[in-house]
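Hey,

The postdoc asked me to send both predictions to you directly instead of through the lab channel. I've kept everything plain text so nothing gets mangled by the mail client. Protein one:
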Amino acid sequence: MPASPRRPCLVIRSDDSSSDEDPPSPTRLKKRVVFADDHGRPLTQVRIMTEPSNVPPLWSCKFLAEVTHGISAEPLANDEPWEITFQQPASNYIQFRKKLEQEKVSLENVIVKEHDEFLLGTIKVSNLAFEKEVFVRSTTNNWKTSEDIFCKFVPNSSTNTVSAAYVLYDTFSFKLTLPPKSKRIEFCICFKCEAKEYWDNNNGLNYVIVKKVQNKFHKSNSSDELLNAKNFEAEKMHRSSSFDVIQSSNKVDPWSEFACWNHMDSSSPYW
């Protein structure tokens, strides 16, 4: 059989069939420009600015609800940090050593662990004897109930190299759990040695830790209420400044050229 003629690689078009537009292709979509008004939509979007240009936009409660999807902007109870209401005893070393010599026991330092919700602290006691017992008594309901937490002995480098009889003070550590629902916790320290008790209650005030009160976010008002409040404050400040100007004009020094106005006769009309 004779072989079929091959198609040429080059496609020659006649001048009559040439045009500016390419022939439509089934694999390429033709671009179209459609305006919004063809579908009944407005071509422009107008927004009326009710607030002045020098203040941020005022958001309504409806807008905030759509953006936040119902999430409250109020801080959670767990976000309230604990605050130490007393000075760290070891920060004043002279008073700290004096207290140890007189009362035989003293709180040294405390650290609040917010993430883990507990309180760490160290206590110094006089080395009166080898057998010692140290505990922390705490309460969260104004001493209606209390809890005793026994402390652990903390060895130091001097106890390993020097005889225990020459060590003047021993260190104990404790760990108090901070209840998430409580707003206040107070504690004192007891040191038992040789059938005697020594207490450290911060000179009768106890060691108190409270949750710090933070300023909560104000509830969102409507834009009209906020704008009226801003306009009222601006008008009030304007009136106050105008009154100050009038008062200052009445207090002109005698040497000023405007002081002659004070001697003018105002009993009759100026015309």
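Protein two:
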Amino acid sequence: MAAKQSSSSCLSFLKDALLLPTRNPKLFVPVFLLVAIPILLVNITNVFFIQPLSEDILFDINKIKNTDPSSPEYARLMEEMMKEARELVVIAIAMSVTTVVFSFIKQIVALFAASTTYSGDRYSIAELISKVTMKGHRIQGPLITMAMVSALEFACVLLLGILVQQLMRQFSMGVIILFVFQTLAVLYLNVVFGVTVAVSVANTESRGVTALRQAWLLMTQVRRKEGCVLAVVIYLLGSAPSPLYMVALEFAKKSMAAGLALLTVYTLLSGAVQIFYFDAAMVYYYQAMETKMAMADDFDYVKVPTGEASV
């Protein structure tokens, strides 16, 4: 019975996160659209522009290999390939910049929506944005934290890439174990980074390294089980829509309408997963802080002297 109650308590914050949008639908519906629409635009750009251009370039490269360099056909193919390559670079750069900007915006807005709703406020999207933008200090901390987190995530990926190169040069059991351990560590750290941004949104006094230290303390000491559950659930849910994306890619080659319909369904699922992730990170933070404060109160209670003299 105790084990069952412990398991239930470990999952209770996920239930709270799942139900959080129902507390204020007028806010979370536009927030969901803010999260989902950029995903759809990126997927459409990738499927209907970037991938066809990449395939055309590969096709031209194969034709160039079998073409006489001194022939007019060779010059025509080279010119066409360079034109397609320039278009691909421009589209890829524009999509990357847009993705980064929208990633910052949607994460901040979604986390502020989760924080204010969990705290009992019932804002509309306009009221929420006004509350955040009218008080510049509210958004400054999360932006600083997100910039730091992005740099740390890049460093983790870089270290993982170096280890992959080492694995390719020296295929040994020790390197494999190190690779698996580092991969799991990076996956867990990414969730810690997500909670770090949630900390900076909920607590304006915590930003950057301070928010990271707070998130690490909560994930590794205050609520370890819930932290592990959060990491596992997020990655399982995050990978669930991926097969649908692969199916959409195949259908897009045969029918644009069918591919677009499947991409839309994939976008809705991915948007829902991201909203749940933001809500879960925020609910985890608030409940972990409640646990931390309760632990501190218990410790102070133990330290209070009874006032009884020993005989």
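Summary for protein two, as requested: Residues 256-303 form the longest helix (48 residues).

Thanks,
C.
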